[in-house]
Amino acid sequence: MRYKKLLLHLLIVTFLGLHAVDAQITVPLSEKGERRIVVVVASYNNQPYYRRNLDSIFSQNYENYHVLYINDCSTDNTLALVEAYIKNRKVSDRVMVIANKERRGALANHYHAIHEHCKDTDLAVIVDGDDWLFNMDVFSHLNSVYKDPNVWMTYGQFVQYPSKDRGWCKDMPREVVEKNTFRDYTHNPGHLRTFYAGLFKQIKKEDLMYQDDFLRMCADNAVMFPMIEMARNGHFKFIGQLLLVWNGENSLNDHKVVRGLQYQLDRVIRVRRRYDAIETPFRAETKNEA
Fold it and tell me: Which of 144, 160, 267, 288 has a C-alpha 20 to 30 A away from that of 242?
């Protein structure tokens, strides 16, 4: 009887265009079999790069996506240029622009955008405002990767601009995974960072804080370490294919602004408590989001 119920569930999921990741939760798919991708772009003073960033997103060969663009109180013309771009390209139905009145930092922006505007079953894709996607097939490739119900998050790979050097991302050694020592490993899980929003929401807020505020740097490590620890039982995937161009030219990059503080905060993150593995990327309340 249990086998028959499971078979019936799978047939219903297939017929309705749903994708089973959790036995109790299904990921909605479009008629074309596309899961909903939400691109989270945190941007500060990116006037020289905003167009390449947005062009790479809105040129994707993919339909089921939405963009959360957070202008982090830029002091240049980034906000006005982005709003004009959206109007001229006629993509206002695909994007929400969040204009901060004060600067909050990347981690705070990601946290609030995902918690306030993403369903647990949304596939969050993090693209910084000065970076851009490698080609027009990034979303479709991610969609194919996430067809595997065991995949809850992915990382890698990127190429640096303007040097054209390949990024440092690589598959995690078995020993690192088994011993849960991701924070001690040299190669952190970097760009392109993607994950189910429900997995992100299971990170404890206090683990993203330092001295009563969100960590001002190292947003990538702050969230990727907890998520890969929770997903370590076969639920994360390294993608070796180039998916993102990381902009090493920008003078506002963390390692160029306050290198000492970046190193300090990285150490704070790496010595914090490791997360236990979990059974599902979705929370109990996910059932009520449909």
Answer: 267
